[in-house]
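Model it.
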Amino acid sequence: MTTRTRRRGFLTALTALAASAALVMGGSPASAQTTNVDYDANGTTTIASNGSTITLGPAVMNSRVETDGTFTGDMALPGAHTSFKVIGFVPVSANVNFEPVGPTTGVLVRAGRFRTLESESQYYVRLSNIKVAGIPTLAGSNCRTADPVIVPADTPAGEYFDIAAGGRLVGEYSIGNFKSCGLLGAQTHLINALIPGGGNTIELNLTDGRAVN
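Modeled.
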């Protein structure tokens, strides 16, 4: 790709982003259209019940910004690993997968000359390869939350979301009970004693926005 071609592509993307931003800020609907933007996504979530921190990403958020500020995104998170200690010294570890239930939905809210993003995602949380003190629990591959986990993630107070550059999103959510974690039920009972609860936090950074045709 030549330098001239790259420059032309960048200017085209910038024009599309500007059109969408103008409408969200109160521009003319006749001159704006839906803008598709991809963001790099990285972050962490902390589980309050056991103090473990799980890495989120790297991933890509494929988003669509409508003329009324409606935000819709699709993001497949890679598998992650978590570990923590029970009663201070018994190590527990597991592989974690966040399985999306539909797209991320939200809206860009006008804040003076700037914008903030309010969003919500839903995921089943699936656990596998669970070990307690290094011993496999035989929980199987069907161990996941009985219901989707609803995760709100909004622009923090005092910060803003830029359509082209992205921004930081934070939120707090609850995890419900798990099901199908082994044949005898003991594993399910153990997991539900260690993980579910409220006060879990998430921080997600959307960066390097790029318009997509």
